[in-house]
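pipeline/complex-builder :: batch 7 item 3
reading input block
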Amino acid sequence: MKDAVSWENDVTTNTVKIAARDVQVHYGDTHAIKDVNVDIEDKTVTAFIGPSGCGKSTFLRCINRMNDTIDVCRVTGDIRIDGEDIYDRKVDPVQLRAKVGMVFQKPNPFPKSIYDNVAYGPRIHGLARNKADLDDIVERALKRGAIWDEVKDRLQAPGTGLSGGQQQRLCIARAVATEPEVLLMDEPCSALDPIATAQVEELIDELRQNYSVVIVTHSMQQAARVSQRTAFFHLGNLVEFGDTDKIFTAPEDPRTESYITGRIG
Amino acid sequence: MTDMPIENAGAAPAPRKGSLLEQDARTRKRNRAEARFKAYGILAIAMGLLMLVILLTTIVGRGTGAFQQTFLTVEVELLEEKLDKKGNRDLADIKKVSTFGYAPLMRAALEAKVAEIGFETDLKSKEMAALLSKSAAADLRNFVLENPDMIGETVEFKFLAQSRVDGYLKERVTRASIANDKNISAAQLDLVDALVAEGSLQKQFNLAFITGADASDQRPEAAGMGVSMIGSLFMMLVVLVLALPIGVAASIYLEEFAPKNWITDIIEVNIANLAAVPSIVFGILGLAVFINYMHLPNSAPLVGGLVLTLMTLPTIIISTRASLKAVPPSIRDAALGVGASKMQSVFHHVLPLAAPGILTGTIIGLAQALGETAPLLLIGMVGFIASNAPETIGEGLMSPNSAMPAQIYEWAKRADPAFYERAWGGIIILLVFLITMNAIAVMLRRRFERRW
């Protein structure tokens, strides 16, 4: 594993972090993703939008090989992170997932304390030398997850006892605790109310300073608010990919236009 | 809801008439159907409870007698010239006196007792001594061997009464029923009445029934569950040590790691089928494999435990897989998402959440194994009378023994009604074990259950 990015990384020029070429995904007989080519930049929020079942979540799960856990799923093509093919036979998906964190649609904290939720990743990856170190990591991660102030007095309380929005921010804190380089978010706000959504969106914007964030969302407003780049998926194809401003104001493809104006979806 | 059959399709919906305060015909009909269904449910539960009450009252009513036994307390003079002719209290010499040597002492003791209470009878002293159990002399001899210092003194000793006397006190035997009985006569019963009136012959709590060994056909009064209980415990030990790890490991592999293909499908179907295989089939398998082929000893709890392990494994695997399946997949995703390996996600997150279900399944499997009789028939654990408790664990596993349900079965098939009472008593002990195990299952469930 390469050294984790330091928190204070101040690279300003956006480089390509994830490059996907000719990615195809099959679920049994279903051709879920067709020939997707996309370059995801570092320190940028990239949004995947598209109607339900268009393959955006499937593609997202290819980036940290979560699809490996599904027996009938086959991925072909080439996905590179920092130039390294993540589907190379030498790549261990477990090591990859430490580098590519993921936040899921439904908040899924472990049924353990808030502290243990965040400390679990660093513990299994051996990121802390001692208890004080671990406390530090947990505090930093909870601060990054913008939830520290709400939970600092009850770190031993169960993580599942928090409200939905807090749980989701806890999950984000848990994901950043292992110091990943890429953060994948699969509709992170779909189970949250508007206030919690606003908090999480604000958080995503902050996370951009340090990570390459990829977010799948149903809400076009959300994509417009948080992302710099947007990819529009339709029926397994990547229809259009470009700057968010451009996609929402001057889409090139008629399908994109139909979708963002609400005619398909 | 669009696929619900639409009644009166095509016709314009009739506007609802009438007041909300009175039910229309359709509502009344639906409410009646619901009330009927509830009544069936309550009836079914009531029937179930009634059966349970009948079962329990029968068992308790018939079985409690076994926990009481009739004892005759008399003073026995341990004559030195009979028991220790040389007078040097050498244990080897005392041991040379067999139970026959003790019989005269007991006869004398009984004669003295009869004379003391002033009971007029034609009974010879031998007939008086026949009121005592056939194991009474052996009991006295064991007492003397343990306390050789008492030789030459007069001790008060509690003798087991024979089963007819015991039955007479428990009203199982009546004067009418002994008409053709060679074991006891009306004159002897007169003496029994006199001794009861005097207070030296009475029913007492019978610890030996819980701790003692089985006894031969002629001595139902001396039979106990203790040694077969130890046999059962050793079998449970074998089952627990083998079935729990094998079963849990197999289920984790099948549920979490194994690829889903036709081979695992076949394994899955066959495990489910194994759970339905009659236990006697496992018994004959055990006979063929463990005894005939592997030459493990007959009647040994080790073999019984192995057979019951085979029988319990499907139960444990099925319940473990069910509780692993019940763990939400989001927990697995969460663990994998932070970079846990498959094994870490299983052992750190899935298994702790599945633990209550696994434990419950295991204990229910054990309880099932504890009550199993049929396979034990085939490996010879029925009908063997182990007279001594084993001294080491190895001996406990390898030496012939019986098991609680087998012991009950054995008693139930013997002719003497005194054994029948003991069979019911044995069932009470077995039920106490089962209830305890189920209570432990409930407690563990509560303890390990997710607290949030």
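note: The beta strands of chain B are 68-77, 154-160, 201-205.
queue -> next item
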